[in-house]
Each structure stands twice: as C-alpha cells, then as structure tokens.
C-alpha cells in the first residue's frame, strides 16, 4: 500500500482500493483523537486491538442476522470490507447517561435509562457533528423517513446483541456510535467499526468511577493506562468468542 493510492484517511482508519472495486482495505491506525480532533495522541497497538475486536463483533452480528461490511482480516490491523455509500449520520445508542447526554440534560453520570435512547448526529466535522431532530434530518434530506426508521430498528437490534455479549465479558455497554451505508444493491448495512474507540465501556468488576473506564474516555480524560484498558477489552472478547 502506498500513500498515493489511499482513497480516504479518517481519524482512525485509512481506506485503500483493491483489485475488486467492490472491496476496500481498511487500515486501523494507532492515532487517537478526541473533541473533534482538538486533542491528538497515539495509543500503542490500538490499530491491531480495535481491528481484532471489531472483526469478532462484526462476526457476532452477522451470525445474528445483521448485515455488515466486514469480510475478513488479512493482517491484525487490516480489514477487508465491502464498499458502501456512507449515510452522513452517526447513530448513537445510549443505555446509561454519560458524556454529552449528561452535559446537555443535567442527568447524573451513571443514570440507567428506562429504555435505550437512539440519537442521530450529522457527520460534519466543520459543524461539530451536531445532534439532529428527525425533522431537521428529513428537511436536510440526509435520509428518508423509511430509512430513519430502519436505522433506528437496526441500532436497537445491535444494542441488544452487543449489550448481552458484553455482559458475558463482565463489561457494561454504556453507549456507542454506529455508522451505516448502502451496499451495491441499495441495502442499508452496518459499516465503520465497533471498538473501544466507538463504545463507552465500563468494567463490571470495578466500582471506582475512573478505574471502571475501558474505552477512549481514558484518553479523553487523561486517566492513563489506555493501552491496558483496550487490551483488557480484547482479552475478554477473545475469552468469550474462543
């Protein structure tokens, strides 16, 4: 792979073309960013850990009937994926109050929600990825009403599957971000990644507010031991999937 051949470089991954126009190669980077890239750093081994975690979670979802862009991993930090036309929305599912939900609503950190909350954010760095109402989303023609309902349905299904799985890993799935796209047939499928970069994960064996954090909040909040937390998530996932 050469720099001039890359199709796209984001905060966490680089996409490269392959000999098949319908298949891309995603390289997972060790780079870390927070607060819309205002904070930057590097987490040693993050690329390999996230790629491996995501691959197992994609396989799990596929086995439960959720279509994803995942194909396979030729190396620990590279994933072959189906090319999709990304829907410019970040779909966030929240089970417990944390992060921006607490800041915007005044809910206390750790408040368990009566039911999962699904939110849509506009994927636009220049605007700061703003939270959108359904009416604004439709007005902007980012998706149709039918597509929005499908995204919500998929997000809730994925949430149930992942919440149950992480529970067997002694991890609580607090909230997480999903991205979807259209495949060559126009079907909506899950894309991007599922990892400690995109999920808020709390260790069920820890009661301390800081020690329980197993995700990128350790980087955001300068809690330290970021690599160790990611490694712990990886090992617990592997211990369950075998």
UniProtKB/TrEMBL annotation:
> Which Enzyme Commission numbers does its entry carry?
6.3.2.6
Catalytic activity annotation: 5-amino-1-(5-phospho-D-ribosyl)imidazole-4-carboxylate + L-aspartate + ATP = (2S)-2-[5-amino-1-(5-phospho-beta-D-ribosyl)imidazole-4-carboxamido]succinate + ADP + phosphate + 2 H(+)
Q: Which GO terms describe its biological process?
A: 'de novo' IMP biosynthetic process; cobalamin biosynthetic process
What is this enzyme's class at the first EC digit? ligase
Indicate yes or no for the key word Hydrolase.
Answer: no
Q: Which UniProt keywords apply?
A: ATP-binding, Ligase, Nucleotide-binding, Purine biosynthesis
Q: Which Pfam families match?
A: SAICAR_synt
State whether keyword ATP-binding applies.
yes
**Which pathway is recorded for this entry?**
Purine metabolism; IMP biosynthesis via de novo pathway; 5-amino-1-(5-phospho-D-ribosyl)imidazole-4-carboxamide from 5-amino-1-(5-phospho-D-ribosyl)imidazole-4-carboxylate: step 1/2
Listed InterPro entries:
SAICAR_synt/ADE2_N (IPR028923), SAICAR_synt_PurC (IPR033934), SAICAR_synth (IPR001636), SAICAR_synthetase (IPR050089), SAICAR_synthetase_CS (IPR018236)
Q: Which GO terms describe its molecular function?
A: ATP binding; phosphoribosylaminoimidazolesuccinocarboxamide synthase activity
Sequence ranges assigned to domain SAICAR synthetase/ADE2 N-terminal in this UniProt record = 6-236
The Swiss-Prot or TrEMBL record describes its family as follows:
Belongs to the SAICAR synthetase family.
HAMAP family referenced in this protein's UniProt entry, alphabetically = SAICAR_synth (MF_00137)
Identify this protein by name.
Phosphoribosylaminoimidazole-succinocarboxamide synthase
> In which organism is this protein found?
Zarconia navalis LEGE 11467
Gene name tied to this protein: purC
């Amino acid at each position: 792979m050469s720099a001039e051949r890359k199709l796209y470089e984001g905060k966490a991954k680089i996409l490269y073309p392959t000999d098949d126009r319908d298949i891309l190669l995603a390289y997972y980077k060790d780079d870390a960013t927070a607060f819309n890239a205002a904070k930057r750093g590097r987490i040693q081994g993050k690329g390999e850990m996230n790629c491996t975690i995501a691959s197992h979670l994609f396989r799990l979802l596929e086995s439960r009937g959720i279509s994803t862009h995942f194909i396979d991993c030729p190396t620990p930090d590279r994933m072959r994926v189906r090319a999709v036309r990304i829907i410019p929305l970040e779909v966030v599912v929240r089970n417990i109050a944390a992060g921006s939900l607490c800041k915007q609503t005044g809910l206390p950190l750790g408040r368990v929600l009566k039911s999962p909350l699904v939110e849509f954010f506009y994927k636009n760095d220049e605007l700061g990825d703003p939270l959108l109402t359904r009416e604004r989303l439709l007005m902007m023609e980012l998706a149709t009403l039918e597509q929005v309902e499908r995204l919500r349905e998929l997000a809730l299904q994925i949430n149930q599957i992942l919440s149950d799985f992480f529970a067997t890993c002694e991890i609580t799935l607090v909230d997480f971000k999903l991205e979807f796209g259209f495949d060559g047939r126009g079907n909506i499928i899950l894309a991007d990644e599922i990892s400690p970069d995109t999920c808020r994960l709390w260790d069920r064996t820890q009661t301390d507010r800081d020690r329980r954090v197993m995700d990128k909040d350790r980087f955001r909040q300068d809690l330290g031991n970021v690599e160790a937390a990611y490694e712990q998530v990886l090992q617990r996932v592997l211990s369950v999937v075998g």
